[in-house]
Specification:
5 helices; globular; mainly alpha; about 120 residues
Length: about 120
């Protein structure tokens, strides 16, 4: 998991010729993306290696939702989700925001228009 965190944080560290851009993410954001991606490996997946509090996931997810719906609706939406649903939704939103699917084959983003 550490290599994945390092790759997402600084792709050119591993390959100076990579097309993957520096996303300028905070370490917490990098940990979220790495945890989400590591969960996609294999049919069973792997446990997330990053540590965070559920309140952190809720807070960031609420920020995403409050940008598109009223606060009360955003809070009700998050409250109705399980912890796993919250983490997966946050991962999907982060991948969508940064356009990772433009260069990577990510389940659930097959029909999404590439950025650029």
């Amino acid at each position: 998991m550490e290599w994945l965190f390092d790759w997402v944080r600084d792709p050119r560290h591993y390959n100076a010729e990579t097309f993957m851009p520096d996303m300028r993410l905070t370490d917490d954001e990098v940990a979220d993306v790495a945890a989400y991606l590591s969960g996609l490996t294999g049919s069973v997946g792997t446990a997330a290696g990053a540590t965070y509090q559920a309140a952190d996931v809720d807070g960031v997810l609420l920020d995403y939702l409050k940008a598109i719906v009223p606060s009360e609706e955003a809070e009700a939406t998050v409250a109705a989700m399980s912890a796993t649903e919250r983490q997966l939704d946050l991962g999907r939103r982060a991948i969508g925001r940064y356009g990772c699917y433009s260069c990577h084959e990510i389940s659930g983003f097959e029909d999404t228009q590439a950025i650029g």
